[in-house]
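Recall the central idea of this unit: under ordinary conditions, the amino acid sequence of a chain determines the structure it adopts. In this exercise we apply that idea directly, starting from the sequence alone.
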Amino acid sequence: MSAKIIDGKAIAEQMRTEIKTQAQELKSKHGITPGLAVVLVGEDPASQVYVRMKGKACAEAEFFSDEHKLPAETSEADLLELVAKLNADDKIHGILVQLPLPKRIDESKVLLAIDPAKDVDGFHPTNVGKMMVGQETFLPCTPHGVVQMLIRSGVEIPGKHVVIVGRSNIVGRPLMNMLSQKNDRANATVTCVHTRTRNMTEITRQADILIAAAGRPKMVTADMVKDGVVVIDVGVNRVDDPTAKRGYRLVGDVDFEAVKEKAAAISPVPGGVGPMTITMLLYNTITSVKTKLGIE
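Accordingly, the structure predicted from this sequence is:
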């Protein structure tokens, strides 16, 4: 048996086409162009690539993209002042402060300063609290992308046993909450395993759906899953490869070649969850505009 590939790139392209159509409708019917502001402090290479990809995605979706690239020595006070200006700017419907920030800047203080109505990353405590109790709010982009991949691939979630490997505040914890909610896109029994879990393999073998988000290359091996499992690999790890053009290649948290022989469906790395994260950022920005206008 070889698994069906859950193609995150194709799903992301489908969603971006839908988002572009909605953006065009908002402009023609209401005269509003969805606006996303991205703030980058310093010159972290991975963050620079990510911001560049966001700018390209905004252009393709016909969004207004407002980029602020600040030097590494920018003070916390100056950054908070910029966030306050973006909060007050009616052209901006979503604000994203790219993490990580320089160590001398308090990340939690900056995230708390963003207007919850423009917090399209879904990290503000107000929005995290709303998510926890099942209220309508911005959902964190990567976990929401995982859920969309499952739904749009025809994977039934209700009643299934989902095992999540990893408990980060960015992926693992939000997914635990989202997939255990009482609605037709969730209603799963969710177990989280992590570095202090005993008998991890015993638990992962029970999974109908396994989501790997631990940040450890190829840690999920074939002996850790049962036949017919659905696997979503969130991990993106850089490993040395002298044969590759750049001297490295990207691999997931799952041993893809081995696990795909047992799985019913599996997402690859790259080309799986990665393209969904920016897509859900665009989705949340469109949602922000609709909420402001009172559109369902």
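The first helix runs from residue 8 to 30.
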